[in-house]
Amino acid sequence: MHQFDPSIPNYLEGDITSVALTAPAGFPPPAMPNNVVDPNQPFTITIEWEVYGVLTPLWLAALSNNWRIEVFAESLGGGQELRIGSAQLPKTASVACTANPAAVNCQKWTVDVTVPAGTLQEGNPGGPATSPSGIYKLAMSVFLNSTLGTPGFDLVGYYEGPVIQVESPV
Q1: Nearest to 157 by CA among 50, 72, 75
Q2: Distances from the Cα of 18 to the Cαs of 48, 75, 88, in angstroms?
């Protein structure tokens, strides 16, 4: 599955290489990976992606200066469907690639998107069928805009997952 559009093999390709969720921990270590989050605490989603290929420098030079990152949550069962966080990151904030170190012109970006406390509803087990499930599938996009006109030269990457549970610890 190609995660980036456009995807032109060997010329312009991309991958979202890592998505990690961390929530404040009540015991050491200070933060730990966790797919069960407290609705009363903020949590962070760290997204990493790489773009590579012969055309990468030329393509990136023609696009806007900032990546626009958005994270969405879709409830499984009853509940919310909403954008839970967003960020911007300068396209110049790239570092050397790690997932595709041998790829030509490979550039990597990392961003943290913080989801504020109270954004997602906790589940209501045993409640009416329309009650929030508290289970959400996350989806995210990384986007660079183009103003070059037709046919459009935007660059966008998508990633689906993980599935999380929103549950108060008490």
Answers
A1: 50
A2: 5, 22, 18
Share above pLDDT 70 across residues of the chain, in percent, rounded to a whole number: 92
pLDDT higher than 80, residue 84: yes
DSSP annotation string for 68-98 = EEEEEEEESSSS-EEEEEEEEEETT--B--S
Decide: pTM greater than 0.85.
yes
Of 45, 94, 92, which Cα lies nearest the Cα of 70?
A: 45
Could you write out the DSSP letters of every residue in the chain?
Answer: ---EES-BTTTBEEEEEEEEEEEE-SSSSSEEE-SEE-TTS-EEEEEEEEEESTTHHHHHHTS-SEEEEEEEEEESSSS-EEEEEEEEEETT--B--SSSTTSTT-EEEEEEEEEPTTSSPPP-TTS-TTS---EEEEEEEEEE---S-TT---EEEEEEEEEEEE----
Question: Model confidence over 107-162: pLDDT tens digits?
Answer: 999 999 999 999 999 987 777 777 888 999 999 999 999 877 677 789 999 999 99
Per-residue pLDDT at 25: 58
